[in-house]
Amino acid sequence: MIWAVALNYTSYRYNRLNIYIEFFSGLLVLSFYPIFAYFRLQEVSFDVRYHLPLQISSVILFALGIALLTKNRFAYAITMFWALPGGIASILFPDITNTFPHIDYIFFWTSHSVLIGYVVYLMRVRNIDLGYFDALKALGLFIAYIVLVYPLNTSLGSNYGYLNSPPDSIRLPSFLENPSIYIPILVIIMGTLSIIVLSLHKQLYSNSKLA
Q1: What gap in Å lies between CA 194 and CA 53, rounded to an integer?
Q2: What is the pLDDT of residues 16-38, one digit of tens each?
Q3: For the CA atoms of 27, 28, 32, 33, what is the dihedral angle to 10 degrees?
Q4: Which candidate among 85, 90, 95, 156 keeps its CA 20 to 30 Å from the CA of 170?
């Protein structure tokens, strides 16, 4: 549905239909985690090591919801520069063991598909000319996320953001699994992908101005 709306109805033009889509979509996206937490609590299986809204995808969903509801530029930048690299990597290397209809399976695939779909929508419809400073701020927030979440992972025995070790779905040489090596490489990869995303976004922005 999201792809159809983005590609067939908007034609680079922001109109009243987009306003309604973004309002209700923003509410929907922000409801994802509360719904997930509710089902976990109902099953009495909520575990702070795994189910707090501290995964990168949870942060992006929150930013996406704010971007859809408020047109906030920083939230939009986070969505652009975090969602494409993180969302595509998660879909290519899904770190999930449960199968349908388990709530983890449904939440994982729904949330990541929605992230990618809405990024396509926002890149096509929103005429926001992001620049290198926006990418730098998004990368700065990513580093702040690491600084805050890594010690929390250590104290809880969790692995939010896969900061303490790579996901099981990705096999790395043992020396790269050391956080002192793994995390700086992660930041470099994020910065490199941000430049690629920015280049793509600027190209689409230029095309929208010519349309």
Answers
A1: 23
A2: 777 888 888 899 899 988 988 88
A3: 0
A4: 156
Q: Domain count of the chain? A: 1
Q: Are 80 and 91 in contact (CB under 8 A)?
A: no
What is the per-residue burial (b if ≥16 Cβ within 10 Å, else e) of 134-150?
A: bbeebbebbeebbeebb
Residue range 47-85, pLDDT digits in tens = 899 889 998 888 998 999 999 898 889 999 998 898 877
Taking residue 1's Cβ as centre, other Cβ atoms within 10 Å add up to: 8
The 8-class DSSP code of residue 170 comes to S
**From CA 151, how far away is CA 188, in angstroms rounded?**
20
Residue 195: give the domain boundaries.
2-210
Contact between 84 and 119 under an 8 Å Cβ cutoff? The reply is: yes
Please give the full DSSP string across 31-88, using - where no structure is assigned: HHHHHHHHHHHHTT---TTT-STTSHHHHHHHHHHHHHHH--HHHHHHHHHHHHHHHH
Please give the DSSP secondary-structure letter assigned to residue 177: G
pLDDT at 211 over 70: no
User: What are the distances in angstroms from CA 118 to CA 31, 111, 172, 198?
Assistant: 15, 11, 31, 16
